[in-house]
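pinned: reference chain
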Amino acid sequence: MADDQEFQFTLLDATIEYGTGGGDLATVAFITLRAPSSQNSDECAELKQAVMAGIAMPKDVDAEQVEKAREMREERRAEKGDEGFTGEEIMLVLSRSSYPLKKVIALARDMFINKHAGVAWVDGEVRLTKPMWDAMTWRDVERMTGDYIARFIAASLTQQNPTSTTRSET
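pinned: its structure tokens
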């Protein structure tokens, strides 16, 4: 698959094992996240609306925070020539939105582990399952969700090429 259609996400906190076809256990090295298809359109539409709600009407935001975020974004654009959102920025926008963050996470989970149109593949070969998802830490869930939304769903908000958004390394 082309680079602009997938990227690899590395877990920071959790050690997750899964069964291989031969009965052995393997440890997850990375999760390949693939671009959504039309089978994911319901989740994508709702996630995009959540991002827009956070951009348009964040709750409890003061002018100093807005200015600091704008300056940081401009610095990154100048340094990297990148106009897209990072996963960290997306999660900040979503957490400050009136849109329920738990709904965002649930939508992402449903898209990642969907049996018919799942976009998350453990070690690039095995579908991410609910037990694997449940074994992930909150930090990894939040990072993976933010990175995915930034790369594939919010990218159209800045008319960027999906390959220009980089994954946060925190």
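why pinned: The chain has one domain: 3-164. Residues 3-164 form one domain.
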